[in-house]
Write a structure and sequence with these properties.
The chain is α/β, with parallel strands linked by helices. 23% of the residues lie in helices and 19% in strands. The longest helix has 18 residues.
């Protein structure tokens, strides 16, 4: 569907040559296929052809070899989730030594064969947590970057749950920041009624920034027509505000390919449109590229929340800078109609001009104490500014 093995290797080699790390999607919880060995549904007798590393032969069709989880014993870490249709998929049992070794061998093989140098863990809550560091410390995977999809429900999974999972997996991987993503969704979708103070807390990035991969949408949250269940509609408006947040904040930000190079929003099916592909809106490359540039040049160091007024509608925070990145101030405005200002903000940048790095003719000044002078830091309605010191431009 997507090309040949040779073309995949060429793609990986091209990315590596340009300093871009190719990442492979690790689906190590569940699998599908096989012959009709168990009650005619073929869940467990998966016998791939032309493969000698990871056979799972179960002629009796009763999982007597222990390669799969078939009961709720050991829940939640040894549980057959019935991922997908219950008669089509089965969950691998990482307590089985043969399965563990086969998975690790495959990881090393595909890393060497294709040239992958990073890993995305799919559906990690269905995987034994202790298996993740075992996998990531094996062969070519050792000391390489990975990120976990730990997602029970994006509106219920708490930061503490994510932090607990990180600890259980011995910090073998970073984790997608679903709690933050839910706040960003509310900010963008609620037409100006979101409390912007919430962006200063409540995400994995606020407690464990070094382990947080921040994102706006992904293939799991936004799919054409909303996906099979029509609930994966993603953010529905003003995604550029969410990107302004993650690209100037701590954590490791991820840009969704559809948002960057294709259409931005999920579309409903239009029977009168013969070329309707389930997406609509202009891509955000023109907005994302300058934010990436700002991140590379300025957005370093810890974060200080510095809003002093209009905090329901304005979010103001400072990246304090490092030896190589001098810092910046992000201002986000949730108001639908009005440019809002925050005066009296103490930036700790004394007697200097602050310039919007995205619109350099916009300048405000600070006094000898670093306090912003009138009219103050501002952002347009449903928009943002990123202030840097004029001398750092």
């Amino acid at each position: 569907l997507y090309g040949t093995e040779a073309e995949l290797q060429t793609l990986a080699n091209t990315l590596n040559a340009r300093g871009i790390v190719p990442m492979v999607d690790l689906v190590l919880n569940h699998m599908a296929g096989g012959s009709n060995a168990e009650s005619g549904v073929g869940r467990y007798n998966y016998q791939p052809t032309a493969h000698e590393t990871f056979e799972k032969v179960d002629p009796a069709g009763n999982n007597s070899n222990g390669y799969f989880n078939v009961a709720t014993m050991g829940e939640p870490f040894s549980y057959d989730w019935g991922h997908g249709a219950a008669n089509e998929t089965a969950d691998l049992n990482q307590e089985n030594a043969y399965i563990r070794q086969g998975l690790k061998n495959w990881g090393a093989w595909v890393s060497a064969k294709v040239g992958y140098r990073a890993y995305r863990w799919d559906f990690t809550q269905g995987i034994e947590p202790w298996f993740m560091p075992e996998f990531m410390n094996y062969s070519l995977m050792k000391d390489r970057f990975s990120v976990m999809e730990y997602w029970t429900d994006s509106r219920e999974a708490t930061v503490r749950e994510h932090a607990t999972w990180l600890a259980l997996t011995d910090y073998a991987s970073t984790s997608f920041d679903f709690p933050l993503r839910e706040k960003l969704r509310l900010m963008c979708d609620l037409n100006g009624t979101f409390n912007m103070y919430e962006l200063s807390r409540g995400g994995l990035v606020h407690s464990y920034p070094q382990w947080a991969c921040t994102f706006v949408d992904s293939h799991d949250t936004a799919r054409a027509y909303g996906g099979d269940d029509q609930t994966k509609v993603g953010l529905t408006k003003n995604k550029e505000m969410a990107y302004a947040y993650i690209l100037t904040s701590e954590g490791i930000p991820c840009v969704f390919g559809h948002d960057y190079s294709e259409a931005t929003y999920v579309d409903t099916f239009s029977p009168n449109d013969p070329i309707d592909d389930g997406w609509t809106g202009t891509n955000l490359a023109a907005q994302i590229n300058p934010l990436i540039d700002i991140r590379r040049k300025y957005a370093g160091g810890t974060t200080t929340y510095i809003s002093t007024m209009n905090s329901n509608d304005l979010y103001v925070a400072k990246r304090n800078g490092t030896a190589t990145k001098p810092g910046c101030i992000i201002v986000l405005n949730d108001n639908m109609t009005t440019t809002l200002y925050d005066t009296g903000v103490n930036t700790d940048w004394a007697s200097t001009n602050l310039v919007d790095a995205l619109q350099t003719n916009h300048i405000v000044s600070t006094d000898v104490g670093g306090v912003v002078q009138s009219p103050g830091l501002s952002a347009p309605p449903r928009g943002y500014r990123v202030y840097v010191r004029q001398g750092d431009l």
